[in-house]
Amino acid sequence: MDKPLSIAPATGRLGVLTPGLGAVASTFIAGVIAARNGLAVPIGSVTQMAHIRLGQRDEDRNPLIRDFVPLAGLDDLVFGGWDPISANVLEAARTCGVLEERDLAPLSAELEGIVAMDAVFDQRWVKKLDGARVKPATSKWDQAQALVEDIERFRSENDCERLVMVWCGSTEAYQEPSAVHASVESFETGLRSGDENISPSQIYAYAALVSDVPFANGAPNLAVDLPCMLELAALRGVPIAGKDFKTGQTLMKTLLAPGLKARMLGLRGWYSTNILGNRDGEVLDDPENFKTKEVSKLGVLDTILQPEAYPDLYGNIDHVVRINYYPPRGDNKEGWDNIDIFGWLGYPMQLKVNFLCRDSILAAPIVLDLALFLDLSARAGQSGVQEWLSFYLKAPQAATEAGPEHDLFIQQTKLKNTLREWMGEKPVTHSEAG
C-alpha cells in the first residue's frame, strides 16, 4: 500500500453556488434536499451510489466511494446562486417543469427560501433570453467585484467553511480565445475597459478563482479553459474542471463508440438530432449558441476512435449533429442517432438509438458529484485542471498536451484510480467491480 495523500477533513458547511438557477440547478437542489430528508435515493450520483474495488477481486474489499474518501455529507451542503429570471429555487423549479408538484410540495418551504442573487447578464451572449433580475450595467470590473462581494456575503451569512461553484447557466454564443484571455493581467485590464470578448461565465469564473472557490463549467462556453484562468487557478491554488455536462446523446456516444472500437468494427457515419423544448433548447435555437454546443458535441468521436491510428475503420466518418427547438417536448429531450457501421469484408450494418431522456435528471447528479469532488480536491491540496473529472464532461479540459480522453470507461478508471492513489491504495488496471 502506498502512502495516502494528506486530505483535510470535511468539517463544517460546504456552500454550493450555481450561476443559473434554472432547470438543472433547481432539479439538483431539490433532489439533494429530498435525499437528505429520506424522500428519495440519489440515483445517478457516483459519489453517493457507487462502490470502488480495492486490491484484488478475491479480497472482497468494495466499499462505497462516500465511505472510502472523506467527502462532505449531503447534510453539510448549503445552496445559493444567481439567476436573471427566477426569484428563488421553488419558482425556478415550477417554471422549468422538470419535477412534478407532488415532489416539490414537501420541499417547497426550503426551496422558496433559497433566493436568487441578481445575475451578471448580457443578452448579447444569449439573445433568446431577457434577463430582469440583473446587476447594473456598470463596468465588467465592477460586476466582477459585485460577484466577489456576493460570494463573501454568502460565505459569512451561511457560516460556510468552504465553497464551490458550478456553472449551470445557459450556453453562450460561440467565441474563440482572444488577446484579452492571454493572461490574468490582460483579463483584468479587459474587465476595466469593458472588453467585448469577456463573457458573463468568464466573469463568474474570475470571481470564483480570486475568492479561492473551485469552479466547474457545466456548459460549452469558454470559461476556465483559457490561459488567464489557468494562470489564476495556479496562482491561487484552486482546482477547476470543465466543460459541458455529459448527459444525453453524448453519454450514449461515449458508451457505444468504445464498444465498436473494442471489436474493431468500422464506422462510416453518425447522424445525431435532438428535440428539446426547455430554456436550453430555446437558447440553442440561435445559430451562435448552437455552434458553441456543436463544437463540444463533435469533438467526442475522433478522440475515442483515433482515426489516425485506424484509417481503414474510422478515417472517413461523416459526423453530423442537429438540435431542434420544439417547445412541447420541455425538458424531456429526445435524441435520435443513426449510426452506419461496417464489419467483415466491409459489409454495412446500422444501429439506431432513440433516447427519450430527461436532460436535467441526468445533469443534476453530475452537479452534486462535481461539487463534492472539487471540494475534495481542494482539501487534498490540488489545483488547476482536475482531469480525473473528465468522466462527467462532454469536452473535458486536458492537463497536458496529450489532450483529453473521451472514452467513458477509461475516464471511470482514471477517476477511481485517482481516489485510490490519494487514499494510499494501489491502482486497478483491469476490470472494475461495482
What fraction of residues sit in β-strands? 15-25%
**Which value, in Å, is the CA radius of gyration?**
21 Å
Q: Please report the first level of CATH classification, the CATH class of the largest domain.
A: Alpha Beta
Number of DSSP-assigned strands: 10
Instruction: Estimate the mean pLDDT confidence.
Output: 92
The main sheet orders its strands as 2-1-3-4-5-10
End-to-end separation in angstroms reads: 21 Å
Shape: globular
Share of residues in helices: 25-40%
Considering the protein shown, what is the CATH homologous superfamily of the largest domain?
A: NAD(P)-binding Rossmann-like Domain
CATH architecture of the largest domain: 3-Layer(aba) Sandwich
Number of discrete domains: 2
**Individual helix count:** 17
Q: Output the structural class.
A: alpha/beta
Order of helices and strands: EHHHEHHHHEHHEHEHEHHHHEEEHEH
The largest sheet, given as strand count, sense and whether it forms a barrel, is:
6 strands, parallel
Q: Could you name the ranges where pLDDT drops below 50 across 5 or more consecutive residues?
A: none
CATH topology of the largest domain: Rossmann fold
